[in-house]
Amino acid sequence: MMLPLVSVIIPVFNKKDFVEEAVNSVLNQTYDNLEILLIDDGSTDGSTEILKDLALRYPSKVKLIQQTNKGACHARNIGIQVSKGEYIQFLDADDILDSQKIEFQFEVLKSQPKDVLVFGRWEYFDDVIGDLDSENFSFYREHLKPFELLIELWTKQQMIASFAWLTSKLIINATGLWDENLTLNQDGDFFSRVVANSSKVVFVNDSLGYYRKPRYNNIITTKNFDSAKSLFKTFENYQNLILNFCSSPKTKKALIKNYEHFIYRMNAISPELCCRAFEKIKSLSGKKRPYVFFDSKLLFFAQFIGLEKAIYLKLKLRKAFK
């Protein structure tokens, strides 16, 4: 019996040093019924020539789609729209899948309803797989109530790499497309909706992928107003999404952790958005002054003098003691 087709969507923008290794990790999968959709997002570094060569060498597996630079989310959306598979595997052009990643996950999925979601292990690496320590996350387990996985991730400020999932087209269609207006935390936004549209989330212990550690100028490490606006928007989306399922104190605590993270990450970039995040915290906590001194000095004093002034004083003191 023919195995269901899995569509592997790889957006590529200026990844000439890594993309062939990423594609080879898909070509080497023990699960054989795959289509590989390479979306060249206007590369200018020689990636295009590598992609064309791969498409020529593996015409039955690899399809190349070229577009002017419109961003990774647009590229992924194009991949979704042209995909023919019953399942979707996302992979960034600098990450790597273990050769049995898809096989192990499909072995679980084949006995499950189509609205069940699976994810596997993932490890950071720098230059060579295994050069960084792996971590055994507490969320590596089955989640009968999918929204509880989101609450745990937000409370502990952890993430799941986008390639760790294998998602049915049924769930993708219910989820909708990637938000092309976002420049930061796009995968968190998309996969929170994917999780919310699943009936159960199953962890596959033997499934593995490798996440290349971001460099200094990577979009993940970038701090500017656009990235601040994007991150804040995703945290608002989380709040709107999860409160449809559960409004327990545990849920609100998880949402507060997101807004606290935003304030500490972006206070030097956008004090105005941080003030909005602080108001969200107070609203979720149900308290005008939710912090004691040892919780957070910045947020404790912000309760009395305002967050914008507290941020200003913090930055001034940091500069004085440099």
TrEMBL record:
Chain ranges of the Glycosyltransferase 2-like domain: 7-159
What's a Pfam family in this record?
Glycos_transf_2
Q: Does the keyword Transferase apply?
A: yes
**Per its UniProt record, what InterPro entries does this chain match?**
Glyco_trans_2-like, Nucleotide-diphossugar_trans
What is the organism of origin for this protein? Cecembia rubra
> What is the official name of this protein in its record?
Glycosyl transferase family 2
Q: Which UniProt keywords apply?
A: Transferase
Molecular function (GO) terms for this protein are: hexosyltransferase activity
